[in-house]
Amino acid sequence: MKFLRNLVILPVKFYQKAISPLFPPSCRYYPTCSTYMIQAVEKHGVVLGLLMGSARILRCNPFVRGGHDPVPDHFSLRRNHDK
């Protein structure tokens, strides 16, 4: 299963190193959406992590305030308001 996690994380790390630096910072959250995706996959596994990361990307838009939104300890598609 670690191989599958690494296979999912690899394109996100590629994005962070090769694509993201070409554009101005635009993520409204901390940690960034790409970091959140990696942390969610590492913490909750591939399927749930991808769902959580995708939901986070959909939440990252001009109509939200953003702010601190760490990966929660329990699976959720909503923003983490605990911290």
From TrEMBL:
Q: Which UniProt keywords apply?
A: Cell membrane, Membrane
Q: Which InterPro entries match?
A: Membr_insert_effic_factor_YidD
Q: How does it sit in the membrane?
A: Peripheral membrane protein
Q: Does the keyword Ubl conjugation apply?
A: no
Note one Pfam family from the annotation. YidD
Q: Where in the cell is it found?
A: Cell membrane
Kindly list any coiled-coil regions of this protein: none
**Superkingdom of the source species:** Bacteria
Please report which protein family the annotation says this sequence is part of: Belongs to the UPF0161 family.
Q: What does this protein do?
A: Could be involved in insertion of integral membrane proteins into the membrane.
- Which named protein is this? Putative membrane protein insertion efficiency factor
Organism whose genome encodes this protein: Ligilactobacillus faecis
